[in-house]
C-alpha cells in the first residue's frame, strides 16, 4: 500500500482514468457493433443512420484523446465500406 501522499493521489488518479477508459472502450465497441448489426440485417436506412452516429462518435473520441486520428479514420473507412456493400 502507498505511504506517501503523492502515491495515494496517483492511485486515485489511475482508478479514475481506468474507469474512464473502460467506458470509452465499451462505447466504441457498441458503436461499431450497431453498424455491423444494421448491415447484417441488410437494412440500408438503419445502416446509414448507424454509420452517421458512429462517424460522429468516433471523431469525438479523437478530440478527447482516447484514440488517434489515424485509428479513427481507419475504423470509419472500414465501416463506410461495409455500409456501401448494403447499398
TrEMBL record:
What are the protein's GO molecular function terms?
small ribosomal subunit rRNA binding; structural constituent of ribosome
* Aminoacyl-tRNA synthetase as UniProt keyword: no
Which biological process annotations from GO are given for this protein? translation
Tell me, in a sentence or two, what this protein's role is: Binds directly to 16S ribosomal RNA.
Entry-linked NCBIfam families:
S20 (TIGR00029)
Q: Report keywords, A-Z.
A: Ribonucleoprotein, Ribosomal protein, RNA-binding, rRNA-binding
Q: Which SUPFAM superfamilies match?
A: Ribosomal protein S20
**Keyword rRNA-binding (UniProt):** yes
Q: Which PANTHER family match?
A: 30S RIBOSOMAL PROTEIN S20, SMALL RIBOSOMAL SUBUNIT PROTEIN BS20C
| Protein name per the record | SSU ribosomal protein S20p
Q: Which family does it belong to?
A: Belongs to the bacterial ribosomal protein bS20 family.
Organism the protein comes from: hydrothermal vent metagenome
Under Pfam families, the record lists:
Ribosomal_S20p
| Cellular-component GO terms for this entry | cytosol; small ribosomal subunit
